[in-house]
Sequence to fold (136 residues):
Amino acid sequence: MRVVIGGTHAGKRDAVRAWGGAPRWLEADCLLEGPPPAGDLVIDGWAAWIAAQLEGEADNDRLRARLVQTLETLLAAERRTGATITLILKEMGRGIVPMSRRQRRLRDLNGWLAQDAAARAEAVYYVWHGLVRRLV
Fold:
């Protein structure tokens, strides 16, 4: 699994496209429908998926556990099929801390997702102003 993280409009998608290949692009919410499809995947839209989940789950630990389980499912699919799965994650931790509890929860859970994904990934890239740097 690869993780590509950076701020809004930092060039994350362009960086992934520059690697070539023809991966299937998906939004994270499709993972709620069942196992991921076979083949190389790029999965984006994690912040929107987390935001939608906040309404139905008041416990951050349970929601984080659900995210970790999703990562484990993706890793298992990748090992089983030999495909490459790339996660595109938004960096939210470099701005002003939001006033609303809901926005703080979103930011916290997004940060935990980034940490949990990076801990499991074989490669982590940070994109800033269109510049790509491999961290791991």
